[in-house]
Specification:
globular; single chain
């Protein structure tokens, strides 16, 4: 099948509505568009640079944790959840009760992402893994009654209040298993020369078109991108997340998915997706460079602490994965006394490395503000 002549599917009349039944994608593909090929080359280059760069950074997993939290908050924001990155990394006790539901959804998503990435070591990227991830996302929050961990067995829709005025109606529930089986086969097919970035762009489009779950499809579909990049070996570490790009270009994101279904224009979606990969990879590389510069700067500042310098480095290492925290959390994590932590944090505030947020003498909360700015 040529990319340029792709036929996305067809509308099928149901009772009082028409569902969109997509074309199966586990077929032989041919990339026949020069503009897409050129954008692919640029995106591949930047993705390779990001992959190489991330492997040169000591303790990169500490920084990846913040990338994950940024991805989660941006992906959730696309779906209407309002938790920001500062709130996402704080303890539940510090969250405004009115925002707690959103905060819990974000925490579920963080857990789901980390679990899915870890499971790739023992499970292939598959429907089973996606179901496991979906179950974690919806546990105990809004959507918990919408078949967590199972493909839907009823009709859903996007936009509008019902099937009558829906903006888009995905395929009928009776076809979901077949479509998702085809999608899974396409992930693992060995019979195609299709480049990985083109393949994952098609996978994301197809997943969002099938909309196989009653809730959480957007978050799972965007996570699918990173899981594919890691499982296919394009990234050694999960360092590229596209939700920030999608959120900044939200209307274009939805429009470009829609135009595939309405006008069979897969090329426009591929161009948008590849630009997103290139821009996001460039941004991620720059963030890592700024992290390295910041780390060098703060390590220079703490030299004046003398014998406390080693302990200060350990505290800073903790702060790279938890940049808003309190004294007790640091004491527990590093197995040191609270008074020792208190004295050291006062030193770090004096050196303008940390900012004290609460003004309380007890239960004080501190932020590694310069580091947080790199992810906002």
């Amino acid at each position: 099948m040529n990319i340029s002549s792709f036929i996305s599917g067809k509308l099928i009349q149901r009772f009082k509505y028409k569902s969109f039944e997509p074309t199966l994608i586990d077929v032989q593909w041919h990339l026949d568009n020069d503009v897409v090929a050129s954008l692919l080359s640029q995106a591949d280059q930047k993705l390779g640079e990001l992959n190489a760069f991330s492997q040169l950074i000591p303790n990169v997993d500490f920084f990846i944790k913040m990338h994950v939290i940024k991805e989660v908050t941006k992906s959730s924001r696309i779906e209407g959840t309002q938790t920001n990155i500062d709130e996402a990394i704080q303890k539940e006790e510090y969250i405004n009760p009115e925002k707690k539901d959103d905060w819990l959804e974000v925490q579920n998503y963080v857990q789901a992402m980390n679990t899915a990435i870890a499971e790739l070591e023992s499970l292939p990227l598959s429907n089973r893994l996606l179901k496991n991830t979906h179950k974690i996302i919806l546990q105990g929050v809004r959507g918990k009654h919408k078949q967590p961990g199972d493909f839907r067995i009823s009709q859903n829709w996007i936009g509008g209040n019902s099937l009558v005025d829906a903006k888009f109606i995905p395929p009928h529930q009776d076809g979901v298993l077949e479509y998702m089986s085809d999608l899974e086969q396409f992930i693992h097919t060995q019979n195609s020369n299709l480049p990985h970035l083109i393949k994952i762009a098609i996978l994301h489009y197809q997943f969002e078109t099938i909309h196989p779950f009653l809730d959480g499809n957007g978050r799972i579909g965007r996570l699918l991108i990173t899981l594919y990049l890691v499982s296919s070996g394009l990234l050694v570490k999960p360092t590229l997340y596209l939700s920030d790009f999608f959120e900044k270009n939200k209307e274009h994101y939805y429009d470009n998915l829609t135009v595939v279904r309405t006008k069979n224009d897969l090329v426009q979606w591929l161009k948008f997706f590849l630009e997103g990969v290139r821009i996001t990879a460039e941004s991620s590389i720059q963030t890592f460079k700024e992290i390295i510069a910041l780390r060098a700067s703060v390590e220079t500042k703490i030299i004046i602490l003398g014998k406390k310098q080693i302990l200060a480095k350990n505290v800073l290492q903790y702060l790279y994965s938890q940049p808003i925290t309190d004294m007790q959390s640091i004491a527990n994590a590093l197995n040191i006394s609270v008074p020792t932590v208190s004295r050291l944090l006062n030193d770090l505030v004096r050196l303008e490395i940390l900012v004290e947020l609460t003004g309380f003498k007890r239960n004080r909360v501190f932020a590694f503000e310069q580091y947080l700015k790199l992810f906002r």
